[in-house]
Amino acid sequence: MKKNILDNQTAHEVVERIRKIQPSANPQWGSMTATEMFYHTNEVLRRTMMLPPLQPKKSTLKQILLKTYFMNFAPRFPKNVEAPKFVNMKKNNFQLEGFEQERNKLIERVNEFQQSQNEFAPNHPIFGRLTKKQWGVFSWMHLDHHLRQFNV
């Protein structure tokens, strides 16, 4: 069974891994800095938590198949997959704060996400409709991917 960031212990483990990243950390792949990665992952969690007013859309067959594979069989997030434009660090001019500020904001967001009693966004741009539990699995896989990117 895949880890889920909605689980208290899993969220705690993620936060401890985030704390281990140093400002001088170099990525094992990709081109984001640690500060950019903190911003990127925080923004994905924020959008997941803040979009419930959207109406759910019916998933396409392709989305259902991708979601089934990813949630049940994919061991990890693939490396070097380009992020959607709205969270792509290289295609936007995001106003980042410093390393510590972005790291602290991500830690706060992980804790807020884990404790949230609200529903999350109904649709993922690639996987279509996701339940709250599936968002928890996806969010863990996404964070794990980027934390491994920085060797933690």
Description:
The protein has one domain (8-149). It has five helices and two strands. Strands 1-2 form a two-stranded antiparallel ribbon. The longest helix has 18 residues, at 132-149. Strand 1 and strand 2 form a beta hairpin. The protein is mainly alpha-helical and 152 residues long. The protein is globular and about 45 Å long. Helix 1 runs parallel beside helix 5.
String of helices and strands: HHHHEEH
Total of helices: 5
The secondary-structure class comes to mainly alpha
Largest sheet: 2 strands, antiparallel
- When the domains are counted, the total is 1
Distance between the termini: 21 Å
Count of β-strands: 2
* Rg from alpha-carbon coordinates: 15 Å
Helix amount: 40-55%
User: What is the average of the pLDDT values?
Assistant: 88
Beta fraction: under 5%
Point out poorly predicted stretches.
none
Shape: globular
Strand order of the largest sheet: 1-2
Output the keywords.
152 residues; two-stranded antiparallel sheet; 51% helix; single chain; mainly alpha
